[in-house]
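User: What would this chain look like folded?
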Amino acid sequence: METKKTNNKQKQGFKGIEAAGLLIIACFIVALCIYKFVLGDPSNFMNNDPNNHPLPGNMLGTIYKGGVVVPVIQTLLLTVLALSVERYFTIRAAFGRGKLVKFVAQIKDALAKGDMEAAQALCDKQRGSVANVVGATLQTYREMEQNSELDKDQKVLAIQKSLEEATALELPMLQQNLPIIGTITTLGTLMGLLGTVIGMIRSFAALSAGGGTDSVALSTGISEALINTAFGILTGALAVISYNYFTNKIDKLTYSLDEVGFSIVQTFNATHK
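Assistant: Here's the prediction, encoded as structure tokens.
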């Protein structure tokens, strides 16, 4: 009954998006629609023609002139935003209902008093990844107390193994999709650089065409270069901020797991011969 109870609690909470590939495809479709129907709306350009200059001060038309790289960078930007929201709710659920620092302190206090029932009750109330790991370890703790076949060292190893296995089940959920955000930190900037190079190529081609200067083609090339540079830098910056923020959150959570796990093992060592 106790095992079923623990397993049920571990299944609760927001687990995040597993099909990240589908999310990226959806973001690409949205980006194409924005590029075609919002940025490329004829009303944003002179004479209602997207091939002409954008209207003075019209930012949407100016962004459209960034060229075909714009929807690619927009896809990366939308992906970062979507996965950041997904990671926020996932890691928030992993921390549990109450403050993690307070929960860890209460668990350590209950262990110091030898009150395992109170510690389990705290886990049931807190929920989240730390509570799941502590609850699974406490269950093994009680099983080892009733076990008369193993010696003390074997029991300690069993508790440590239970802690490690429970942690191994929780951590992948926390780190899920973070590698994608980490990749976009570089990819976003590189795509911006690619758009810059393409824009400059068009500008130089306009300068050399027919021995004269095509002002429309020249300005289009420069717009493409600058817009893609700005979008690439923005995407890369947001990805870096998001990745570092969530990595720091996960580090705090794993530190709490290590702290409570060490306390459980030390309590067993101190109270059993």
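The chain has one domain: 2-271. If you want, I can go into more detail on any region.
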